[in-house]
């Protein structure tokens, strides 16, 4: 994600160009985050063997429209869909289409909506048919890695503390963290400073402050961390064809921790264990 400091910005921001939001801004983020999460709840039953990823995306587009919201991804840098759907060894930015899901496929569905000018960005994992044991382990570790990252969020900690929490946990399970994509600041924009790395060293990077809004969205591979982008210029896959998983929340830093904007209203964030 590109990162630049907006020189014309009027409100408060850090020297790294990270916007510090007001308490009153949290409400808008909760509205947007809740819609994105509710849409991911509502399409869960559409993930089954024989289904196409294009049909799931069409339903997501309809749900965004029915809610009177706007898709942040349709028209973003030429992207044409309301979601990214990344199956098996696709790391992220999978393009929905005619491909049908097979028994044992795992997929990440990533939705970003705009509600009253605020962005809600979240993704989670789904399974078609029976979940293979090694995929189950990957999904569990990736989910728990995101949660470890969120637990590291509080004023005075650094972005490096978040990356360290995620990387050390993932590598303790002999899996790898993708380096080529990161989380990002968001709010009244889709992608803003900082780049939120999912690896790093304790105490490095910018210091967290109350009022920062950003995503944490670790991508974890069963094999090596390297990725490559396919000829469509979007689809990122693992170079070694190993299985990859991702979970994403949008969060805000509070006085003593974090608020998650994209909590699942139905408690369906985690695909298998609640
Ligand atoms: N939602 C993705 C993210 O987490 C970005 C998708 S951009 C798209 O940042 F154009 F590929 F949809
Ligand atoms: Co994101
Ligand atoms: Co996303």
How are the SSEs placed, and which strands pair?
Blueprint lengths: L25 H17 L10 H14 L3 E2 L11 E5 L2 E3 L13 E10 L2 E10 L5 H19 L7 H14 L3 E2 L5 E3 L6 E5 L16 E4 L2 E3 L5 E3 L6 E3 L5 E3 L2 E5 L4 E3 L14
Antiparallel strand pairs: 1-4, 2-4, 3-12, 4-5, 6-10, 7-8, 9-14, 10-13, 11-12, 14-15
This protein binds 2-amino-4-trifluoromethylsulfanyl-butyric acid and cobalt (II) ion (2 copies).
Short précis:
The chain has 274 residues and is of the alpha+beta class.
Tell me about this structure.
Helices cover 23% and strands 23% of the residues. The protein has helices spanning 26-42, 53-66, 133-151, 159-172; strands at residues 70-71, 83-87, 90-92, 106-115, 118-127, 176-177, 183-185, 192-196, 213-216, 219-221, 227-229, 236-238, 244-246, 249-253, 258-260. The chain is built from 4 helices and 15 strands. It has 274 residues and is an alpha+beta fold.
């Amino acid at each position: 994600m590109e990162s630049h400091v907006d020189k014309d910005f009027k409100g408060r921001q850090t020297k790294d160009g990270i916007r510090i939001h007001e308490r009153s801004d949290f409400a808008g983020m909760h509205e947007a985050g809740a819609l994105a999460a509710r849409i991911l709840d509502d399409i869960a039953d559409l993930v089954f063997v024989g289904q196409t990823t294009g049909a799931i995306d069409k339903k997501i587009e309809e749900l965004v429209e029915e809610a009177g919201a706007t898709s942040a991804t349709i028209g973003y840098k030429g992207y044409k869909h309301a979601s990214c759907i990344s199956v098996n060894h696709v790391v992220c930015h999978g393009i929905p289409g005619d491909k049908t899901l097979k028994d044992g496929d795992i997929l990440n569905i990533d939705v970003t909506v705009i509600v009253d000018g605020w962005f809600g960005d979240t993704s989670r994992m789904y399974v078609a048919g029976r979940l293979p044991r090694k995929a189950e382990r990957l999904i569990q570790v990736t989910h728990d890695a995101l949660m470890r990252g969120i637990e590291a969020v509080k004023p005075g900690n650094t972005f490096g503390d978040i990356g360290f929490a995620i990387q050390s946990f993932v590598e303790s399970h002999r899996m790898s963290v993708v380096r080529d994509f990161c989380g990002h600041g968001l709010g009244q924009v889709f992608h803003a400073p900082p780049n939120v790395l999912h690896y790093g060293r304790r105490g490095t990077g910018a210091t967290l402050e109350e009022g920062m809004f950003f995503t944490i969205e670790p991508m974890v591979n069963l094999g090596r961390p390297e990725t490559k982008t396919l000829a469509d210029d979007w689809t990122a896959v693992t170079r070694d064809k190993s299985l990859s998983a991702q979970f994403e929340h949008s969060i805000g830093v509070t006085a003593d921790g974090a608020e998650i904007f994209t909590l699942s209203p139905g408690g369906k964030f985690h695909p298998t264990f609640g």
